[in-house]
Design a protein that fits this description.
single chain, eight-stranded mixed beta sheet, 8 strands, 13% strand
Length: 274
């Protein structure tokens, strides 16, 4: 059983398709259920395996909790969780819970969903958590006093902080999961042609258009998350960052264990976890 967020488009959809083609049952948590059901139907028809959409808005902590409760009623284990969903925004906006939107959806939503599904991931062990992040983490430092970017906002800072937080979360999660049979890894998918480009400012969209012929397709971008979710080569690997199906060094500040622990504790508080 695999759960893939962001599964209605881009890398998430290509990852869900790849897992389904390999024989997995796939659940797509979707903000817009009607769209998700259409995608699930297409992927299921293409692979011959079960793909199902369930309502889950990653910008809403209440919606994530409702999804986890509904999921647990029908399933007693999870083998793979891929946190691929993410957004970008040229201006600062907030989620219904009052969090800066890029941080709230891309990072905090993934943090809460993973935390709520951990008992089922442990029940499904050996199991894997795969977090899609990226190289923009190198451009920012994590400021725990301004996680919501109320003092300084830019699209690069917002996206970079969410990716950095996701990477640091992965490393702290891997430490906490040692000995459970659950691994946690993160990755950079590369420059991929995806719907996220529509959220860029006009000058970055123009630059992206020039580079578009050299960008990866979503299917190529999905190779590394599929590799981390399925390959026997990484069955016992945890707490690493990958690109092109190979381990890659992160920025040194992404490996700050003390800051990663403080981020974890703050995330627990923000998500309302015990």
């Amino acid at each position: 059983m695999c759960v893939v967020t962001g599964g209605t488009s881009g890398i998430g959809r290509a990852t869900a398709a790849g897992l389904s083609n390999l024989g997995a049952r796939v659940i797509l948590p979707c903000r817009t259920l009607a769209r998700g059901e259409g995608v699930a139907r297409e992927l299921s028809e293409a692979s011959g395996n079960e793909v199902r959409a369930m309502a889950c808005d990653l910008s809403s902590l209440g919606s994530i909790r409702a999804f986890a409760e509904a999921f647990e009623r029908d399933h007693d284990r999870v083998h793979v969780l891929v946190n691929s969903a993410g957004i970008v925004s040229t201006s600062r906006t907030e989620t219904p819970d009052g969090f800066e939107a890029t941080f709230g959806v891309t990072y905090l939503g993934a943090f809460l969903l993973t935390s709520l599904l951990l008992p089922l991931l442990k029940a499904g062990a050996p199991s894997r958590i795969v977090n899609v992040a990226g190289e923009f983490h190198r451009k920012v430092r994590l400021d725990l006093d301004d996680l919501q970017l109320e003092r300084r906002y830019s699209i690069v800072r917002a996206g970079g902080q969410a990716m950095l937080a996701k990477i640091m979360f992965t490393f702290e999660l891997a430490r906490r999961l040692e000995g459970t049979g659950v691994t946690a890894n993160c990755l950079h998918p590369g420059a991929v042609r995806s719907g996220l480009l529509r959220g860029l400012p006009w000058y970055l969209r123009a630059a992206a258009s020039l580079g578009r012929p050299f960008m990866k397709s979503p299917e190529v971008g999905a190779r590394t998350p599929i590799y981390l979710a399925t390959s026997p080569d990484v069955a016992s690997v945890s707490g690493e960052y990958f690109a092109n199906e190979r381990p890659r060094a992160t920025a040194e500040h992404a490996r700050d264990a003390e800051l990663g622990l403080r981020l974890w504790e703050e995330s627990v508080r923000l998500a309302g976890l015990p």
